[in-house]
Amino acid sequence: MTLSIEHLTGGYTQTPVIKDINFEVKNGELLGLIGLNGAGKSTTINHVIGLMRPMKGKIILDEIDLEQNPTQYKTKLAYIPELPILYDELTLKEHIELTIKAYEMNSEKAWQQAHKLLKTFRLENKLDWFPANFSKGMRQKVMIVCAFITDAELFVVDEPFLGLDPLAIDDLLKVINEKKQQGASILMSTHVLDTAEKYCDRFALLNEGELKAVGTLADFQKQFNLPNSSLNDIYLTIAKGERDE
Amino acid sequence: MNELWNSRTKQYQKMVMRYLKYVLNDHLILALLFFGGGIGLAYSNWLKEIHPGTWYIKPLVLIGGVLLTLLGNPVLLLKLPDKVFLVPKEKDIHQYLGKSVKRSLISVVLPTLIGNIILFPLLALEYHHVEAAVAITVTIFLGSMANVLRKYQALYFDTSLSQMWFHLVVMLIAVGLGVWFSPMGGLILMAINLIFRVVLLNQVFKTKRFNWNYAIDLENSRMQRLYHFFSLFTNVKQVGAEVKRRKYADGLVHILSGKPTLFTYLYPRIMIRSGNQGSLMLRLLLLGMVIEGYSQQIPLKVIVGGLTIYLMVIQMVDIYRPVHENVFIKIYPVSPDAAEKDLLSVMKRIILISAIFLTLIGLISNLSWNFLVASVVTQGIVAVILLKWFIPRYIKKLN
Predict the structure, then answer these.
(1) Which of A141, A198, B25, B181 is 20 to 30 A from B310 in CA distance terms?
(2) How confident is the model at residue B10 (pLDDT cuts 50, 70, 90)?
(3) For residue A103, what are the domain limits?
């Protein structure tokens, strides 16, 4: 499953926040979307998950165009927001049930996967609790479980590490890796560049709404003439350079 | 800190005045007149029947008096961000609280006064001397003030003697002394207790650490009680949802869901558990059922039956909004029409169940074909209007 973003221009008002963005997230690939605050990461994600309509350009998941066939596109997509969004009135179990209904999954199979994930994230004894009352990290785990029980082929993960304990971060990265092995594509926005460098296959670097570069760390080192530099160093050099211009 | 208190008091008064406009409406005043008149009449008749020296008057005064000393809460006007932004000013918080104490002491006067007015005839009957009755009344006043000061003391960490049981023991001793032995003795003891509370609170202000979380939670629950009261008369957006599991209502949730799809799974759960809509629906249904059960007038019962269903649905239909405020509804792979279709399906079930209840209860007092036919036809017409016209139009407007 490949996500193709073609000449995407969009924003919240008439003034575009992101301008002419082009990149792909390939089959079995984890692509890190990186950029400073206000670079356009969330706007890009909001377009990819279908919450905003592009001013120009296309978002295509394999051959399914989001604009032409939104329902079919959405069956293949799962999303983990930066801040957990949960129903106050539903228990953890009911959030999982709701996800199963939304994606019309086989209940038995989905619950098998759910129990596995609940165990991994240490939530299995909280099924009858209201997750809206959990801590931020626990709520984030609920979002992770609900997203990864689906058979989605594209996972959009927005700043997943905020609020998670180190063990949960490690578990999440393992789950992401498993999904990658199964052929899913993952688009992940993050500021935690050390982790991104270790786990992402490629990176898309956004700055002031424009795509500065797409590629692997080696590509970036070559492109910006910074051999042996870490992703963090390259990112800081580009960001500071842009700011000082 | 003084400036902050002044600006918050102004905002608070403005808010209270705005809602009081809705609370003090003609209907309420009329209802209060009837209610107060009825209770007053019953109370005066009861007073005529009892004689001075009846064994239970003194225990009754003691219980009533001690309960009156529990009235009153700190009016803190603190807000959640204060625990971040005001922490550096904690050394000056006692200035803010000093103003708040004055305000809270003034606020406790009115409810205690009403309570004492109710208690006074009983005191006059028992003691014959105005001085004794006044001494006990003042004792109770001072007790309620001491209780307010105790609550302020409890806003600080590591404070002793701020527990409720300690207050209750002192109140029982002071009011009991006044009621059984010496009204002046009780008054003096209570005055000493109040002075002790003032001294203790001043010391706490100077030496102890302020418990921000507790104080903010306390104020928040006071404000929520106030908002809930106002919400009986008008819409109050600050009323927080009181989400409860309500496991006992799972059967009803399943009936309303039918064969659940995404939205029929969601709507009944939010309705039943969110507190606001579910309890409103139940209150309306119960009120309708009471009128249906007691009235003999067929036309009135038929109109009330239809009106109950209409009112229930126009309140419940608002469930569409919170469900759609969750961004996942836009991300899930579901057709946009499903939300409306499923809302109509849940509403259909609510109408059907309510209509059955209303008609069955109505049949108890009017077991006749006339009532049955008129009730079923009217509710059918109301259902068609709501399902075919009102709900689709409402959803269209929201979208």
Answers:
(1) B25
(2) very high
(3) 84-151
